[in-house]
Amino acid sequence: MSIQLTESAARRIGKQLQQRGKGLGLRVGVRKSGCSGYAYTMDYADEVGPGEQVFDSHGAKVVVKTEHLPMLDGLTLDFQKQGLNESFKFLNPNVKAECGCGESFAV
Q1: 65 has which bridge partners?
Q2: 3-class secondary structure for 41-70?
Q3: CB-based contact 74:93 (threshold 8 Å)
Q4: What confidence category does residue 101 fall into, taking pLDDT thresholds of 50, 70 and 90?
Q5: How crowded is residue 72: how many other Cβ atoms within 10 Å of its Cβ?
Q6: Where are the domains of the chain?
Q7: Which of 1, 15, 34, 84 has the fewest Cβ atoms within 10 Å of its own Cβ atom?
Q8: Residues 32-85: pLDDT tens digits?
C-alpha cells in the first residue's frame, strides 16, 4: 500500500502546518457522497490514531485510516496553481468513474 505526494503538495502541507503552528501532517480519507459514491476528505493530523497508517513523501506526512486504503492505494496527491486558483488534486488509479462536477468518484 502506498500514497505519494508531489514536491509541490509536500511544500504546501509544510507551509500550512507552519502557518497553523502545529500538526504532524495531512489526514486524507474518503466518505460516501455525491452521485458517484465517494468524496475525498482532508484535515490536519495532529496525531496518529489506532488503525491509521502514515506515509512520508518529500518530508511531509499523510495519515490514512487503514479501512480507506483499498480506495486510496497508489494515490498521488498534487498541489496545483492555475491562475488565481490553487488546490490539491487527487490522482487515484483506483477511480473507475467520476461525477461530472468532479466532487465524487466510484471505485
Answers
A1: 52
A2: EEEEECCCCCCEEEEEECCEEEEEEHHHHH
A3: yes
A4: low
A5: 24
A6: 3-106
A7: 84
A8: 886 668 889 999 999 999 999 999 999 999 999 999 999 999 999 999 998 889
Q: Are 30 and 72 in contact (CB under 8 A)?
A: yes
Residue 14, CB-side half-sphere exposure with 13 Å CA sphere? 12
C-alpha cell at position 40: 475525498
- Rounded CA-CA distance 91/86 in Å is 16
Span 3-106: which CATH code? 2.60.300.12
The amino acid that residue 15 corresponds to is K
How far apart (Å, rounded) are the C-alpha atoms in residues 97 and 107? 7
| CA 32 vs CA 8, 44, 65, 97: distances in Å | 28, 20, 15, 14
Query: Would you say 81 and 6 are in contact if contact means Cβ atoms under 8 Å apart?
Result: no
pLDDT of residue 95: 82
Beta-carbon neighbour count of residue 63 at 10 Å? Answer: 22
